[in-house]
Design a protein that fits this description.
Largest sheet: none
Order of helices and strands: HHH
Number of domains: 2
Oligomer: single chain
Helix content: over 70%
C-alpha cells in the first residue's frame, strides 16, 4: 500500500464513510425506509439523503478551498451542519 498517499485524515475519512454505510445498512434492516418528501424537490430515502449529503459536502469543501482563505475545518463544520439538515429534514 506504499504506492498510495494514505494520510491519517484520509484514513479517518474512509473509515467514517464505511462505518456510516454499515450503520445505514443496520438501520435499514431494523427500520425499513420509505420515500419521504422534505425540503428537497424530490421524494428520497435515507440512502438518497446520505448520498446527497456526501456529494454536497464535497462541493462545499471545493468551494471553501477555492474561495475562502481560512482553515478548512470551518468548511467541514458547515458541511456537517448541512449533512445533518439534509438527513433529518431533506
Amino acid at each position: 500500500m506504499s504506492w498510495m498517499a494514505w494520510t491519517t485524515p484520509t484514513m479517518i475519512f474512509f473509515i467514517g464513510i464505511g462505518v456510516s454505510l454499515l450503520l445505514l445498512t443496520l438501520a435499514e434492516l431494523k427500520w425499513p425506509t420509505v420515500l419521504a418528501k422534505g425540503f428537497l424537490p424530490l421524494a428520497t430515502t435515507r440512502g438518497d439523503r446520505f448520498f446527497i449529503s456526501l456529494l454536497s459536502a464535497a462541493f462545499i469543501h471545493l468551494f471553501w478551498l477555492a474561495l475562502v482563505p481560512v482553515d478548512v475545518l470551518l468548511g467541514s463544520a458547515i458541511a456537517l451542519v448541512w449533512a445533518s439538515l439534509v438527513m433529518t429534514k431533506g
